From TrEMBL:
Residues 1156-1174 have a biased composition (Low complexity). GO terms for biological process: regulation of cytosolic calcium ion concentration. This is Calcium-transporting ATPase. Belongs to the cation transport ATPase (P-type) (TC 3.A.3) family. Type IIB subfamily. SMART domains: Cation_ATPase_N.
Amino acid sequence: MGDMSNSDFYAKNQRNEGSHAAGFGCTVMELRSLMELRGAEAKHKLQEDYGEVEGLCKRLKTSPTEGLAGVQTDLDKRKEIFGKNLIPPKKPKTFLQLVWEALQDVTLIILEIAAIISLGLSFYHPPGESSGQVCGAAAGGVEDEGESEAGWIEGAAILLSVVCVVLVTAFNDWSKEKQFRGLQSRIEQEQKFQVVRGSQVIQLPVADIVVGDIAQIKYGDLLPADGVLIQGNDLKIDESSLTGESDHVKKSADKDPMLLSGTHVMEGSGRMVVTAVGVNSQTGIIFTLLGASTEEEEKKEKKGKMQDGNLENNQIKVKKQDGAAAMEMQPLKSAEGGEADEKEKKKVSAPKKEKSVLQGKLTKLAVQIGKAGLIMSAITVIILVLYFCIDNFVMNKRPWKQECTPIYVQYFVKFFIIGVTVLVVAVPEGLPLAVTISLAYSVKKMMKDNNLVRHLDACETMGNATAICSDKTGTLTTNRMTAVQCYVGDVHYKKIPDPGVLPPKSLDLLYYAISLNSAYTSKILPPDKDGSLPKQVGNKTECGLLGLVLELKRDYQTIRNQIPEEKLYKVYTFNSVRKSMSTVIKLPDGSFRMYSKGASEIILKKCNQILNEVGEPRAFRPRDKDEMVKKVIEPMACDGLRTICVAYRDFPRNPEPNWDDENNILNDLTAICIVGIEDPVRPEVPDAIQKCQRAGITVRMVTGDNINTARAIAIKCGIIHPGEDFLCIDGKEFNRRIRNEKGEVEQERIDKVWPKLRVLARSSPTDKHTLVKGIIDSTMVDQRQVVAVTGDGTNDGPALKKADVGFAMGIAGTDVAKEASDIILTDDNFSSIVKAVMWGRNVYDSISKFLQFQLTVNVVAVIVAFTGACITQDSPLKAVQMLWVNLIMDTFASLALATEPPTESLLRRKPYGRNKPLISSTMTKNILGHAVYQLVLIFTLLFVGEQMFDIDSGRNAPLHAPPSEHYTIIFNTFVMMQLFNEINARKIHGERNVFDGIFGNPIFCSIVLGTFVVQVIIVQFGGKPFSCHPLSLEQWMWCVFIGLGELVWGQVIASIPNSKLRFLRRAGQLTQKDELPEEDVSEENQEIDHAERELRRGQILWFRGLNRIQTQIEVVNTFKSGTSFQGAGALRRQSSTTSQTQDVTNVSSPSHVSLSNAISSPTSATAPPSTGQC
């Protein structure tokens, strides 16, 4: 552990060294050094220094069987001396740090610099009286003393609006961080652990465990603290999280009793005494080292240059181990900051599987828009500067005077500010904000729908899900097992018989076999409320069997008290390979008896005797087994029952059998009885599954149960309908179909199985993983499948990790499953998954609504600023006004549109899938349609507005001229149109009623009203800083009237069918190129399709000059790949005509893709096929 750990903790532990005096027989440091030992060395140290585990318990003042007394003063004292079981989280960023981060935005920095220059120059007055004549038109209105003094206002106003934007961004980040921390603490509080206190087994939050507690550990637990094993049954631990070794380590009280926090129990059960908690446990020490190293690195970074990567990796490690994966997904940055973007990508991709679908599409779109915006703003600045220079120095032949330089520079700065403002408006910084708000809002609401989201992007991926592989027990069923049928003494009882009817010998054996051969943690407790059912604690199947014992008027607890857990001679715990559990006890005469229980077909194979009608063993031949399967097991399974066989075997005293030779031990059994256990389908599941099927999601059941039981439950749930073409197979058949002669899994073989597969029974965890991987990797269908998986067992970990979205069960799930999952279902209910789908689709739609609104504003504002600047040398919308519009669009609109609640209608459409563009053709139609309306009106107002309203023209105003009524009307009309268009943006699928459900979203209503009020204040009282002149009531009415026209125009646009507008493009589409790994792309690079090229020729670009370049590039490409294009093209044409409604994906030569994407407009990423739905 190095010196780090010591130096770090000595300060804390100085007082603890006196803890012998405090009454405990060992110090924190002694216990820590004990826990650093392993195996025989640790055992030796325990014997020498402590006198075995019993001696250690004495020193820690605890009883190995009864645990701590649970007195509060004692617990507090232990926490004070040995520490709490908490690892302090990393300090959150302060608000000031977040402000500093928000200030790093490139466009904002450019604006700040420009504003400061403008501010500085506005105080400069050229010397001498004749400055007006000397500097010519350039000094236009500077003579007016009062006005020239107000020149500083614009610079100050820009700075002020930058401050606003920064504060809003920082506040959003801060609240997001706060939400994550709340979520994280909720995840941590969820984790409880079984501890013995005052002889009672209780569930405690992990944070309340103290040194000296006796913890009960079982299969699937994530150990919350370090401890020493007191007694264990067949215990195997996965220590890979600490050692990196994937082999499971056997633990036993006599060989290797050391158990470490953060490791997983893969098999068995036992009890341990807790010896180290929190920062003193082995995981805690590693955390502290990591924490220290991150701090050191931060210091280094402050001194030197930023070192990329290491820091993030460390933090990610810390986060991953902490289960605090909620912190992992960062919102993606907008396209201005290249390096920032790279870092974000690293951060996002390291912890999660891959960049989520939505993020991929958004990044692509942001880059496209950013490039277009940059080109537009550069052209704006160049045109303004050239026009000014040509006008002044060429046309009017003015010399460049020394004293006039600041005035000229001031003009250039003004042009520069206009250019930057165009860029600010063009780049959608609101995108990451909208994504974050939408996701954070959804996650908060999903909590109420019993979905605890651990990875933010899982929520959005869920909206794209096309397949769900669900467990049966507990997810589709209630996980309340009740024994309803049994076969004892050659009689099949259709309901549980009276104990008097059964042979006494069989009854006694059954009573012992069930009571002893089940985990002692499984119990049936009295109900919480009168009249409700008894509470089942622990393994539900075992609870069903214990319930049978109670129904047969016996009490299992009396036997357990006679033979406590430590007296069990040997336990073979249940695991996915054995599919059975066996317990060996020593009888009074010294001989041994083993009780076994497990899946009936597995146990019956190992039986060669069965108890007859008087409870005596008789021979049980293979012929009898077949008959038993036909007459007893299959009828039970067809009723949807789970069949469990209970058996026993006697062993002589000597020679004592070799207990490690499992194959011979678990053989030659005598069957006692077969029990049919019912686990009824949850009442709400059939309806939820029907919703999934309507929403285009295939539900598959993957279970460890018998195939007949699985099929019966699948029919009850509605997963399969009689008469349909589907597959119900078991694990053995599944493997036979998907593996070749060598036993290797082949993708083509899986592709033949999965599309029709609905039920996979008797499946092992490996089968589940193979199926999920097979579906995800399949290239059979046009869209890549997005698979969600539910799991509760430790062995479901790999499948949960592999899936696009892993759901773990909050109640029945093991800690290992929760750790591997993305979303935890707090009520273990399948219908909560449907809610997750609804929220996921809602996130996607919210982002699309926001984009539709934002891009309309972008297109209009950029074109207005650009053309206005080129024709009148001044943007009709001033920098400060543009920043206000930007604030409306970005921050407020993202809040308003991202918080729309989901509706059932979201489940009536198919999933979007990975290749569908973010901006559909309907949205493009809306964006362009509304942009046309707004541009026509604004240009009308700009060029003939002064005649219409009978006011002075605001065009060609000098440098510091007072704000004109004319330009104020333009600005006000522009904002009114955006406000009403925000209502239009609520619908993206061409719906007519844009007001549908508007009052269900109070945030939306208040933002629209709030924006309106602020706009009134700005126009009437904004004055010089906002370049606004107060308007009369009539002028206001006209502005609002033009704005209202947006709603009418929206109806007109909705009436135009998409098929009439073939040229519409979609943007933000992930083409197959983005999905294929590098090597696949290169193979397909040569293919170019005629149809695609024709379509691409018809592109509408933002400015015509680029059209030529693109055509030339295409010609070059055609020559480049002329050889391959006849054959390949013909093939591609055939395939694209057969799948007419599918998107043609853009896989062409790499130079072509990059250049055309870089050059074309943000709304033109990929062309839809001429035959498909446009």
